[in-house]
Here is the input.
Amino acid sequence: MPKAEADLYIQRAKELNSILQEYMVSKVTISDCSLEEATDVFSRLNSQDTDISKAYMIQALSYKQGDPMLVPELEKIEEGLAKYDYDSIGIDELLTASYKFANKNFYDLSLKEKIGIRPLQYKDELRDTVTTTVQFLYDYCGIVSWKLLPYPKQFQALIWFFRKFPTPTEDRKRELRKWIYYTGLASIFQNGSMGNTRRIFSRFEEYINGEKSTPIDYQSVELSKDLNFKISKRSATSKMFLLTLVKNYIEGKNGDTDTIYRSIQFWRERSGKLFCDNE
Here is the structure.
């Protein structure tokens, strides 16, 4: 390389080094907040760049030299769900599920407590339980995609169950399916407050522990006769409607207009019988 060209590169390197040395980096200290709040703050401050997930946040805060990386391991579990169309579940849901393997309730944990948990200690058990749960939703409940599950917290509750009972009886499988459809139809998880979440999961855990015969206290579900709701990919009601169409398809019914009318009729006439009796 000619000396003049080499001197040019050296000069540019010095200028770049000077810029980096003098560059002022902003720092925002966040204290006494939940992981959800910290993640939201980061996303707002970093709104013009790439969002950060809770799993990436925990990985950054808890990583120690020589440890396996959390996010790639969670992504492997997620990729393994592709054949069920559940690979869009998101690594944050898998991270949340992992806390129960440390005998912790996800809704009670502070950010400091979450950092102290080592999810990869349970990665094999987590993978197996997640797979069993997804198989149940896909094969037994007819929920053939993660995007059709009305509420992610239903998945978290099922993780609690299948962690303890990986091969449940047919009666328990039927009861869980009824619970899935009932909680979706009755919009039980629409109120996402901590108090409501704790109440639902505490009641569900009573069922897991054999203290109750059902995972929830079923009540009649009243549906508007005109079914006045907006179709939305985030709407639990829309997902329940689609699941009813899937149910009709699985049972061999035609996917024409009559199917839609039968689905509406199914909602109107059988919701109480399906979800409120003990059959």
User: Anything to note?
Assistant: Confidence is low (pLDDT under 50) at residues 267-279. The chain is about 60% helix and 0% strand. Residues 74-218 form one domain.
